[in-house]
Amino acid sequence: MPRNVIIFDTTLRDGEQAPGNTMTPEEKLRLARQLDALGVDVMEAGFPAASDGDFRSVRDIAQEIRRPVIAALARCHDRDIELAGESIREAARGRLHIFISTSDLHLEHKLRMTQEDALELARRSIRQARTYTDDVEFSAEDASRTDLDYLCRMVEMAIAEGATTINLPDTVGYALPDEYAAMFRSVRERVPGSDKVIWSAHCHDDLGLAVANSLAAIEAGVGQVECTVNGIGERAGNAALEEIVMAAKVRPQLAQFTTAINTPEIFRTSQLLSYLTGSFPQPNKAIVGRNAFAHEAGIHQHGVMQHGLTYEIIRPESVGIPRSTLVLGKHSGRHALERRF
Question: Which of 33, 40, 322, 335 has the fewest other C-beta atoms within 10 Å?
Answer without folding.
Answer: 322
